[in-house]
Design goal:
Length: about 450
């Protein structure tokens, strides 16, 4: 930032200096041209007076001699009590109407300084460039005043440099002031940077915005938001690890027992029984791990859900095709009443929602039972209802079944207690709601889900 500010300042000051220098030269040139005009008019008023009749000098022109001393050293004064060092760089002439030279300074040649034509002109005299102004009086006399270009250039440059010098002197002072101001203003950011750098990785409390300039509040709020999200992510990971460690301990212990029994079986029948128990334990662990991962994905997806237009009826058909082998094993009947229903949500998350509700219905419905799945539309909501002919859930337990790892006491159906927790999480992330009741048609559980409807 310092480099950018100082670079821009240098460019702007350089541009201003160049423009100021050019403006100084132009104004100095205008001033010198005006002085030439004034000199010519003074000569005109003096020479054209009746008392200044120059006709008594018909032969040679009158020569006015100037001071021809020289300055003693560079940087010393050029003006003295009896003259000025630049006098020989100034010249004038007076010509009569017939073109005869009547009067000149000793610094002027005997030839015309410039053609006798009113106005300004540039002339080369004895290898030097001169600026000449010519003026004609009413009687017809010509008056010429001239300055050497080098004196004009020197004086103009002195004037221009006089206007330029304050800018050049101000540049390092301004750069120093900007540097000091930026360093002073950046101290709060340095403190914030030091606080973040020295913070313990486990400390996710927000940064204090007190004593910070207003310009840094947006950055600090963004950092605090990041710390909050990191804290939530770490909490999810810790919860996931704790849940996995707690829930996997028992089935893994059972696996070890069944494996040991199979290894030490006395005969083939005991070995087959132990093998069956071992297969069941492996299936239970597999299901538990899948449910844990599904819950973890649902929690991650809630941080940045992908909103798309989802055909709820088509999604139900896909999930039923996936889970149909389970219902066929139990000789269950699945009835469908699906309307053209579209919702706004994350299709990857809504799939596990439907799948878990269907799996619960299949697992708790007895062999030969019936499951009915229907979708319908309301003005602002899409409704999904899954009913079964199973035992249902007692009214006093319907709120607790959404807790993690909660299972109804006395149920002989294997499960992890995570299915409805996953369902509730996905529904909450989509701004929907779910109710559990009793199916009027089948007598078992009726799970009804409302999701925001896409109406276009």
């Amino acid at each position: 930032m310092l480099a950018s500010l100082l670079g821009v300042l240098t460019v702007l000051m350089t541009l201003a200096a160049v423009l100021s220098y050019r403006a100084g030269l132009q104004e100095a040139g205008e001033m010198f041209d005006a002085r030439l005009v004034q000199s010519s008019r003074v000569l005109l008023n003096l020479v054209d007076e009746p008392l200044s009749d120059l006709t008594e000098y018909p032969g040679q022109p009158i020569v006015l001699r100037g001071w021809h001393g020289r300055a003693q050293g560079v940087g010393e004064a050029l003006a003295f009590k009896d003259g000025h060092a630049y006098e020989n760089k100034l010249a004038f002439q007076v010509w009569d109407a017939q073109g005869h030279l009547m009067l000149r300074s000793d610094s002027a040649p005997e030839t015309k300084l410039a053609p006798l034509s009113p106005g300004y002109s540039d002339a080369l005299i004895d290898g030097e460039q001169w600026r000449v102004f010519t003026l004609r009086s009413p009687p017809g006399r010509w008056f010429q005043s001239a300055e050497r270009a080098d004196i004009r250039q020197e004086l103009a440059e002195d004037i221009a440099i006089g206007t330029l010098l304050p800018l050049l002197l101000a540049l390092p002072l301004m750069a120093l002031a900007i540097w000091a101001t930026v360093i002073w203003a950046m101290r709060p950011l340095s403190r914030v940077s030091d606080e973040i750098g020295e913070r313990d990785p486990e400390r996710m409390s927000p940064l204090d915005t007190g004593n910070l300039p207003l310009e840094t509040h947006g950055l600090v709020r963004a950092v605090n938001g990041l710390l909050h999200r990191l804290d939530a992510a770490l909490a999810r990971e810790r919860q996931f690890i704790a849940d996995a460690a707690h829930e996997l301990r028992t089935p893994i212990s059972a696996l070890k027992v069944h494996a040991c029994n199979a290894r030490e079986a006395a005969d083939a029948s005991e070995r087959r029984a132990s093998q069956e128990h071992l297969d069941q334990s492996i299936a239970r662990v597999e299901r538990l791990v899948a449910q844990l991962l599904s819950l973890n994905r649902a929690e991650r997806a809630s941080q940045d859900p992908l909103q798309t237009h989802v055909d709820l009826g088509a999604l139900v058909r896909v999930e039923i095709d996936e889970i149909k082998p389970l219902s066929l094993q139990k000789r269950q009947t699945i009835r469908l009443q699906l309307a053209d229903t579209r919702v706004l949500g994350d299709e990857l998350a809504l799939g596990p929602l439907v799948r878990n509700l269907l799996e619960n219905a299949i697992r708790y419905t007895p062999d030969g039972g019936t499951i009915m799945v229907s979708t319908s539309v309301e003005p602002d909501w899409a409704r999904l209802e899954i009913e079964d002919s199973g035992p249902g859930i007692p009214e006093e337990s319907r709120d607790r079944v959404f807790d993690r790892f909660h299972r109804i006491v006395g149920s002989d159906v294997e499960g992890s207690g995570l299915g409805l927790a996953i369902v509730r999480k996905i529904i909450d992330d989509h701004g929907g709601r779910i109710t559990l009741g009793t199916s009027e048609t089948l007598g078992g559980l009726a799970a009804t889900v409302w999701l925001p409807r896409h109406t276009t």
